[in-house]
């Protein structure tokens, strides 16, 4: 058989034919005939032609039926031909070979039905595969050869979304009764099926039964599927929490990155209380690849900032104070400034700016921007902003247009639009600054209310008509408090 396979794949057809002719002169035994039939199929012979070749083989049999030299096509003959058809991805040919066997009184065995399930699944004929499976149940399956294919069938039944729960579970129960191996993908499929039915105990039992027998890579596949289920925004929140609880219980090795993704997801779904639980589970873990890093804290603080949720921010900040594994960096303090400013505590946020200034690492450009943002919202923050600005000037820090924008917004944030406009005009006249859309837009959006914004608009129309007209062309969005946001200006800050 291996020789014929080599001849077929390497293109040595002529040599293969020579070998066949030589073998046929020696009255070959039946297994050799089976290989010759597969060779014939590989060289283009049709099903009918192979049927005639079988007739020739059987016609050369001795007259006595119990002769050891007697050669009769059997299910092994048919299965070999079906396997060849599957290797060529030709399910129609495979069906014809099975039909050929039936015409000769050769009924399929467990291997045949297993092959039939396999190739029917390969073309998406799930109903046909299910029919083959039902036929399989009436055969001897003690060899367990069909188990990998039945595993594939369970996955396909679930994926099709056309077969009911009982149908899928009946197939799974059959495997369980036979004490057969459940493949990782099968376990994943059944776990998600139970989760969709809120059958949490069944998921736990399933995973406790099978997951600990898998390799690390196989466990990771199941784990990743459960994480993806949690991260799917279509998954109801209660089920997401159930799935996370199962992940934490059974997959203790779940590393930091997916845990952080799960924490962020709960923040996005406006459940900061649950997000804090996920963070605390990381914090209390013992594995080096699981405990929070600076990036984990930054992600948590920025998520709390987006929600403006002071409680979750303070809870996680308290954990940071107790975390001796973390060296508090400028990057981390920047995130704290952003978060406390967003949560209505800009004065506290400015305390972290003072910590940054006093630290060995010192401030980054992002630090300056976020400090000005805190000044913009803090009571008398304009005084602090001017203090920072004077220090920057004395240190000969390059003051680009983005820093000017942040500074002007900080001055205007307390409603002193007139002073902010004077600073801007003076810088323009002295050649320190070329007033552009970003600077003018920052002044407008830093102004705290609609009344003051109208004053800015009137001043800008008069002083910088072309720049203002360009801003208006990009559009304006009105907020609930009647203040307006310029669509063309990005004032987001990053740690």
From TrEMBL:
Pfam short name (any one): PPR
Record-linked PANTHER family: MEMBRANE-ASSOCIATED SALT-INDUCIBLE PROTEIN-LIKE, PENTACOTRIPEPTIDE-REPEAT REGION OF PRORP DOMAIN-CONTAINING PROTEIN
Record protein name field: TPR-like protein
Organism for this UniProt entry: Teratosphaeria nubilosa
Lineage: Eukaryota, Fungi, Dikarya, Ascomycota, Pezizomycotina
């Amino acid at each position: 058989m291996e020789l014929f396979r080599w001849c077929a794949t390497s293109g040595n057809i002529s040599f293969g034919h020579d070998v066949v002719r030589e073998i046929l002169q020696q009255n070959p035994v039946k297994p050799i005939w089976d290989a010759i039939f597969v060779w014939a199929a590989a060289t283009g012979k049709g099903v009918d032609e192979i049927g005639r070749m079988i007739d020739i083989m059987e016609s050369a049999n001795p007259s006595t039926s119990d002769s050891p030299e007697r050669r009769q096509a059997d299910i092994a003959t048919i299965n070999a031909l079906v396997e060849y058809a599957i290797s060529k991805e030709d399910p129609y040919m495979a069906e014809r070979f099975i039909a050929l066997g039936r015409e000769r009184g050769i009924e399929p065995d467990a291997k045949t039905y297993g092959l039939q399930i396999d190739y029917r699944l390969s073309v998406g004929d799930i109903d046909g595969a299910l029919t083959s499976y039902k036929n399989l149940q009436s055969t001897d399956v003690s060899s367990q050869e069909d188990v990998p294919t039945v595993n594939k069938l369970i996955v396909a039944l679930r994926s099709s979304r056309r077969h009911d729960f009982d149908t899928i579970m009946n197939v799974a129960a059959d495997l369980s009764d036979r004490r057969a191996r459940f493949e990782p993908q099968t376990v994943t499929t059944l776990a998600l099926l139970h989760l969709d039915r809120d059958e949490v105990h069944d998921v736990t039992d399933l995973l406790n039964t099978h997951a600990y027998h898998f390799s690390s890579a196989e466990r990771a596949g199941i784990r990743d599927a459960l994480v993806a289920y949690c991260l799917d925004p279509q998954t109801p929140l209660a089920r997401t929490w159930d799935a996370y609880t199962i992940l934490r219980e059974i997959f203790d090795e779940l590393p930091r990155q997916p845990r952080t993704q799960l924490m962020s997801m709960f923040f996005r779904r406006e459940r900061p209380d649950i997000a804090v639980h996920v963070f605390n589970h990381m914090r209390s873990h013992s594995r080096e690849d699981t405990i929070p890093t600076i990036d984990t804290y930054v992600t948590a603080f920025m998520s709390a900032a987006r929600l403006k949720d002071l409680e979750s921010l303070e809870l996680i900040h308290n954990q940071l104070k107790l975390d001796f594994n973390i060296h508090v960096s400028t990057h981390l303090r920047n995130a704290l400034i952003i978060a406390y400013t967003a949560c209505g505590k800009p004065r506290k946020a400015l305390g972290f700016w003072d910590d940054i200034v006093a630290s060995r690492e010192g401030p980054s450009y992002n630090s300056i921007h976020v400090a000005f943002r805190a000044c913009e919202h803090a009571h008398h923050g304009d005084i602090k902003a001017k203090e920072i600005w004077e220090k920057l000037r004395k240190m000969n820090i390059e003051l680009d247009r983005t820093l000017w924008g942040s500074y002007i917004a900080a001055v205007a944030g307390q409603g002193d639009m007139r002073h902010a406009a004077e600073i801007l005009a003076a810088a323009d006249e002295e050649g320190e600054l070329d007033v552009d859309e970003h600077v003018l837009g920052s002044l407008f959006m830093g102004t705290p209310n609609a009344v003051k914004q109208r004053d800015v608009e009137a001043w800008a129309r008069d002083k910088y008509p072309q720049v203002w007209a360009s801003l208006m062309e990009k559009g304006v969005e009105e907020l609930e408090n009647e203040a307006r946001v310029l669509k063309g200006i990005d004032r987001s800050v990053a740690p």
